[in-house]
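In this section we walk through a basic example: taking a raw amino acid sequence and producing a predicted 3D structure, encoded as discrete structure tokens. The instruction is simple. Fold the sequence below.
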Amino acid sequence: MRVPLILVLVLAAVLPCGAARAQAPTPPTPPAAPTPSTTTPAAAPAPATSAAPTAPQAIPAPDIVRRSEEVSARLRGLEETPAQRAEIEAIERRLPAVAEDARSRVDPTLKALAATPSSGMLDNFVSPLLAARALLNGWAATLSRHATQVESNLAELGAQRAAWQATRTEARRTGAPTAVVGRVEATLNSLSGAEATLKTRRAHVLLLQDRVSQETEGVENLLARISAAREASERQLLSRDRPPIWQAVRNLDALREVPARVHQWLDEDSATLRRFGQSHGAQIILHALLWITLSVGFHLVRRRVPAKVDADPRLTEASRLFRYPFAMALLLALFLSPWFYGVLPRPVRTLLFLIGVFPVLRVYTVLAPRSLQPSFVALTVFFVIERLDDVAEVVPLFNQLLFLAEMLVAITLIVALLFSYRRQPDESPLHLARAVAMLMLAAMACGFLLGAIGYTRLGRLLGSGALSVGYYAMLLQALFRVTQALLTYALRVGPLTYLRLVQQNRLLIERRLGHILWWLSVAGWVLLVLGNLGLIWKAKALTVALFGLTLTRGNLNLSVGDITAFALTVWLSFLVSRLIRFVLEEDVFPRLPLARGVPNMVSTLLHYSILLLGLILAIAAMGMDLTRVTILVSAFGVGIGFGLQAVVNNFVSGLILLVERSIQVGDVIQVGDLSGEVRSIGIRASMVRTGEGGDVIVPNGTLATERVINWTLSDRTRRVDLRLRVPFGTDPQRVLNLLKDVCANHSGVLRDPAPLVFFNGTGDNGLLFDVWAWTPRIEDSIALRNSLGLEVLAAFKEAGIEAPVPRLEIRMPEGTAAALDARVPGAPAPLRGPGVTPGPPPPAS
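The resulting token sequence is shown next.
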């Protein structure tokens, strides 16, 4: 109890003193003391010298003039540039119109949302709002950049002004000359003026930024309400939204509203088109100039195509398309519309689709079989009618009646086309057209029935969706054919034909690019169909949700999007590496005077570098902290040092072989008893092709550390050795002359180095001669040895020199033959002749 009692006494003494200090008057400028609740031993107040900001340093007197000139130059750099002024003025000029347009859409959109519109009408409302949001977001980013720059400049001027104020104080204290003090005062005045100008600019930018933010918030709110209405519409897709047609026709008085509502709708579309023309005048002019330029270019190209058709039949389709250069140019120009205007309002998009009908029909009347041309025309006409059906949505009954009439006419026409197909010759395009027609007939019949019983939204999704699916496929197929024709022609004329990679790989390039264009067309078709059916937003949401799925294991947190980004980045790095190496090997290396082996070294090292960079980018795209990766790689390196020494040794040895170039691809080497041609130098091992036709995998470490004979390091010449034997008694000089003549007359023997023929002594059965001849290609050494040997034998035969016959001389003791005859009954007679010398009799047994 002694310790608590001491604590109580201490508190009793301290608390009254604290209360007295709290009641006492506070001095004018006391230092701020930390409160007991926030004071800890680790957070003790720092000394005043470290806590106080650093005082501005006065500029030395000898540097005042120079620093003043630097300040003047810097202030001139801080002035607003014409480009910056133009950006701000453009935002100020266009912001009121955009704001007025966005506000004018609020009431009509809210009224339409109250009537549960279809997905198509919702898209009509969304398109201009998305365009306005994109424009406002761009302006917000521009203003934020300007505000940040102005704020940074103000901070810089504040620091400069403090330094020059300290300089003025110091100059007055030290009695500096009046001119120096005047220069300091002038610099301070310039800084103050620049600060005032920057503050005015900052206020202007911040005010404009606030206006843009308010308009953006209004657009976002309206888009959120449309999104909610869309979700409600999708939930009601399977519910009846109209009464059956036999009940709806009882209220035909509703059709009286059609003229007024249609007129109002057309006025709104006309106003939208006018506003679009006013806000995108420059883009429209550039778009028109692009179409004119393409038309003129295609018209000039058309004159050169027929001359090349006979030489290359692949240009036949291109020549047929180039007969209509204006239609081709219009189709390509319309395809590039999103790059000119961004998000297009619904009336503008409809107008562009209607204009695009003409070039699409022109392409199909040129390329499609005559039996299928009526089908494409009918599909295009119904798509145009379906585009104009947006006007009918303003009156539900009129919309329902018009939809049923359209489906009924379309069904009748499709049935007629199916009957007409039976009278046409049996062809594969006709089978595909018949299958597509059957699918469209089924979809339109279902749409007609659903629309008749009151499920108009679902029926329009099926019926109109079938029309849109067919026309979009037709549109993108036409664009694909036009682009493929341009590609086919571009690969057969200059300047691409001057490239070696095009000359040697034209068909490969054309096939690969054709596959890429085809898949791009399929992707574009899917996006267009989803957008027309009103499912693009749901598809985006599902895609985002799919890529957002997360796998968590301890500290590891990976999503499907991260894994996909990693895989795509690695895959793209392989593609980029292959493409770059293909271009280098086909068109760059052959044109440069590089030493042998340098192209392979550059290609391989570039391949490794691109893959390493791709791996780093893939890890970054996956969202993994690179510092953790560094630690992991370090730990992995330690493991490699202990467990994968051979792999690392072979990898480093491969790099050494590539850089040192002592062994290159195509060299003929010999390692121990292995001899063959080097086909590749890989990461871990190299592949050697033997003369017997086998592929031997040799670790790179073996090639880098062991004794290797490289027969083709400096050149590909090879010496052929031929050893000959002639009988004793032959004139050696005559043989030497004969061999020299054979080597001199042989076409495969190099003259430099000259063949060498020399006498190599005597052997068991004759005189020995050696022939050393050189061939320029090591691959021809065996053939040269064979042909040279045959010619030497022919020359010997012609000169009467016979090849020595090996002789074996056997000496037998005297009486050996008689003894053998006595011991072996029926043995042949003993050998006689000059080659058999009788020897002494055998010893007695």
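Looking at the output, two observations stand out. Residues 178-235 form the longest helix (58 residues). The chain is about 65% helix and 5% strand. In the next section we compare this with other chains.
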